[in-house]
Amino acid sequence: MQEGALRDGKIVLSEKPLVLETPLDKLADFITPTESFYVRTHFPIPRIDKNKWRLRVEGEVEEPFEINFDELTALESKKIPATLECAGNNRSFLEPKVKGVQWTLGGVSNAEWTGVPLSILLDRAGVKSSAREIILEGADRGKPDDPKSPSCEFNFARSIPLEKARDVLLAHKMNDVDLPIENGFPVRAIVSGWYAVASIKWLQQIIVTDKPFNGYYQTLDYSYWKREGELAELMPLREMAIKAQITRPSEGETVPANSDMRVHGAAWGGDGEITKVEVSSDGGATWNKANLVGESKPNAWRLWEFSWKTPPRPGKATLIARATDSKGQSQPTERDPDRGTYMINHLLPIVVEIR
Amino acid sequence: MQEGALRDGKIVLSEKPLVLETPLDKLADFITPTESFYVRTHFPIPRIDKNKWRLRVEGEVEEPFEINFDELTALESKKIPATLECAGNNRSFLEPKVKGVQWTLGGVSNAEWTGVPLSILLDRAGVKSSAREIILEGADRGKPDDPKSPSCEFNFARSIPLEKARDVLLAHKMNDVDLPIENGFPVRAIVSGWYAVASIKWLQQIIVTDKPFNGYYQTLDYSYWKREGELAELMPLREMAIKAQITRPSEGETVPANSDMRVHGAAWGGDGEITKVEVSSDGGATWNKANLVGESKPNAWRLWEFSWKTPPRPGKATLIARATDSKGQSQPTERDPDRGTYMINHLLPIVVEIR
Prior knowledge:
2 copies of one chain form a homodimer.
Chain A: E1 6-7, E2 10-14, E3 19-21, E4 39-40, E5 54-59, E6 65-68, H1 69-74, E7 78-85, E8 108-117, H2 118-125, E9 133-142, E10 154-161, E11 168-174, E12 177-178, E13 188-191, E14 203-209, E15 223-228, E16 231-236, E17 243-248, E18 254-255, E19 260-268, E20 274-280, E21 288-289, E22 291-292, E23 302-309, E24 315-325, E25 350-354
Parallel strand pairs in A: 5-14, 18-25
Antiparallel strand pairs in A: 1-2, 2-3, 3-4, 5-6, 7-8, 8-11, 9-10, 9-14, 11-12, 11-13, 15-16, 17-19, 19-23, 20-21, 20-24, 22-23, 24-25
């Protein structure tokens, strides 16, 4: 199969490792269909027998233990919608071009996840007072193509501060069905509100630790530079930055002149609740409020729509969407280069053709 | 000036940034002459007026303050010998070749440092109980040639855990004279026992912090991978690894057959005191104890010598030196690739010509 081809209705961005983007037309609904949910893997996909799968909880705990799939799913589960976004979503729009998966708009999807709160397992193990972080480790394993990476294979892993553990679900169902193999079967973490790299797939181990974890995927990769005085400090990517994306019309689309067009999309991320989405059709000079669709749900995207009176004459028009949250945070106009190739949420104009 | 040329009696390994290696014959004495002390800079060398220089102490302290040069040097000073080694010393011997400054044996020197214990300044400021690390920041400033580095200039900085602060001297003299400009004038840190990257030159700020500092020079650079189960974790380079270096004879040197030759060098690093140096003249099959010269001083190298009965007939001979410390630690035979391009202390054979 070639890059750019379709696979199960998703766009192939890379074969090895497998990376599949959700097509724009599948981003229009609140729930992304399971088979359209984007896929980002880093190593070969582990094929796990559900009956042999075990999850170990260890480290700074009173009673380390192992749990199997039936035991886990017999515990009290919750069902929540949550949006997952790849930290490199929208990367193909960066100028100048940068290395990495060339996501357009489809490195994001929203699903309903059924799973067991991580806190139930932590309570059973008895977290010691020395605990500071939880390392989530997947069964996927390999060596990145990077001269600065570890010299031989290691497992994909990421950590969260202890305080974040209450927001983590160990999901065994996605939109009410078993997880697809490439989305982490049989169990993945869902770390609500964070870039998806934290939501470890093929979960096999939970390690409670007394110090910050400096794994590859939160230092050399999936990190950014934070400025503090005259210093710069490497930080793991965590919370999704606030963003409104336009699903329709798409870049270069032809739109009839002098008519009413429904501009729509989704908005997510940020510290608070999405409270406002605005649309500009004049390159950012003036802004109009869009309607927020449905009800607000924590950590899930909010769909929005705007009725656009298209220009009277043929030509080009530039549309921009901008989200604001309940804490007053919005999107930057300019790209911050200290973010490297990640966390791309500056305003992204799209140009359409008026006929 | 060209690379490989001599500058003030040192070997030029790089002009921009300035890197100068100590020639082998200057490594024979306990104290390296000030003008022969190796030089490793990362950014343009700051020219600081001693009368305008200020050192600020701030962060998690009760009373942040600034101190000038006369006030600092009026405080009680200590004088200690300490060996500084660049974490990339011996890099040119790595196979296959790797990027970075191509140090042979002269990325190490030993001097007597006169300075004020950092703990005096910390006590004056009053370190809060939340403190965990001390960031030492230099006046040197720039942007590394690395696509993953911060996007614009920042100051050279490194951190040490609070417990290590008692081993740090703020040195204003080196071998009883003012520091040379390229060695950190007017004040540099001396972090005893650690690779020299921690011994910040042109010191201008001391920041007490409540969390680990993830600066560029302890994450993307000057770091290594530590294995923990199926994970790999990025660690800052800290303690110098134990090592014995042969100063004489040098690689390829011609040595008379059937005679007594004084093989000598220096040994340093490791957690404990250097208690043994051995020399093999048959490629590591058998080992002979060398004599340790002078007295043992903490954090300074120990000179050693061995009277070698050279082989009776012309040909080649292979010499290897090996150090052991009071905790029983010694040097590895094989290179550990998780150390990247740093911490090179595996056994290094040198081949000489018997005539």
